[in-house]
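Replying to the earlier thread about multi-chain prediction with a worked example.

Input:
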Amino acid sequence: MGELSPSGNVQVSDVLPRRIGVLGGTFDPVHIGHLRGALEVAEMMALDELRLTPNARPPHRDTPQVSALDRLAMVECAVAGVATLVVDPRELQRDKPSYTIDTLELMRAELAADDQLFLLLGWDAFCGLPMWHRWEELLQHCHILVLQRPDADSEPPDALRNLLAARSVSDPLALKGPSGQIAFVWQTPLAVSATQIRQLLASGKSVRYLVPDAVLAYIDAHGLYRASN
Ligand code: ATP
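Result:
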């Protein structure tokens, strides 16, 4: 704990840097691959908070099947009662494409200079990084934690090989400072995707146990992803 100054305030220099994780996604819908990965990383990395940030209009992919409000509501149901996992709706409040660099700049501006920001990316998302808007600036604002994804077997593009050679460290717990490095994190491999869940629902099958019960209840109550939609 920090000591009290004569004014009774905690000395800023004595306060530990905060450790904040960010997992962006379409969450169309959120599923156990996102949630279990997020929770395991939050615990393993001793994060103060892991923010799930649903994308409004993803620049790199098709329009989500259900409304932004439904996707947000499902993420909120999914993390209710889990103290470390929080929902950050800021990308849905923007009337622009959701570029991760913009979100990170905004978050960084709200944090202390030595607070640590960790961007979580599944391996597939990491491999697509060179197509992202201003992707080379991302590491100025955050570290990157890459989650293995058992259903993704792509090779990284050349631009990322160079970046990995220059910036990766083998132990995620050894990531130092507020930003600038990359590490791979192990989590329970779960070969679940939102695509698979949408397909199951469209063909009238159950997605029980692939999403939290509260998300299943929301999908059923609103008739989402069924063939008639
Ligand atoms: P879709 O099938 O619609 O493409 P998705 O299941 O990949 O969706 P997204 O919302 O696009 O889900 O993913 C958000 C982030 O979570 C991405 O970084 C993605 O790589 C990661 N992710 C998604 N599913 C898994 C999983 N099963 N294991 C690890 N990471 C995952």
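DSSP finds eight helices and six strands in the chain.

Feel free to reuse this layout for your own posts.
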